[in-house]
Amino acid sequence: MDVMQRQEYIIDALNKQQTIKIADISEQLDISRETIRKDIYNLDQKGLVQAIRGGATLPESVSETRYGKRQHQETAEKQQIATHALKLIHDGDSVFIDYGTTAFQVAEAIKHSQLNNLTIITTSSFVVNALQFIKNIQMVVLGGSMRTSEGSLSGPITLGNIHNIYADIGFFGCGGVSIQAGVTNHYVEEVEVSKKMMTHCRTTVVLADHTKFKKNALYKTTNVSNIDVLVSDSAIDPEVASELKQAAVSLITE
């Protein structure tokens, strides 16, 4: 097993367990503890893990908190973002809504809007639950394997179903946004779905509250230059807003 494979194994283990021990990884891979220690050190230097005594954990900027907890974090900001996002949708549009708590607020905004004849495409069971009984909305669920804690669908079935699906506009959540790393998120399977769906949307909109900027999650979804619109809230750092505008990103905050 080469360095890249070992480091990927370490990151995958952290995604599942949040904290790992050098001794455990050494035993699982049948590789010396010193080698694993060096791998963790290198990942720590890249900001992808946080080295601790005898092991590693995910730094706050990389780890994903529970869906239920995130629902109650920056709620006003997410609702503000959803209000801005709603203005980008028109009667008769086909709309992709990603998984995640900010994207869910877009579904809630649609639910209480006067928009008609929408087709909603989604990989989120929470979005389905919010909109399935609303008149004048047709639901298209992409299917796949569900990560139940997040209510998100991904995997080969999802990717296959996207092949013949196109949307007028797509709303995508994220774990972090920076000029250098681009748009990033936490789970590689879901990132692959977002990547493919972005190429099937006429307009790609990324939703990110002010806490997501200058943070990197583990896996890259796309460069900021590939975003058509980035919607945030009014608490965004003016310096960050200026950097995004200099990078020719269309930014909506008010």
TrEMBL record:
Keywords: DNA-binding, Transcription, Transcription regulation. The keyword Transcription applies. It comes from the Bacteria. Pfam families: DeoRC (PF00455), HTH_DeoR (PF08220). GO terms for molecular function: DNA binding; DNA-binding transcription factor activity. Residues 3-58 form the HTH deoR-type domain. InterPro entries: Carb_Metab_HTH_regulators, DeoR-like_C, DeoR_HTH, NagB/RpiA_transferase-like, Tscrpt_reg_HTH_DeoR_CS, WH-like_DNA-bd_sf, WH_DNA-bd_sf. This is D-beta-hydroxybutyrate dehydrogenase [Lactobacillus plantarum].
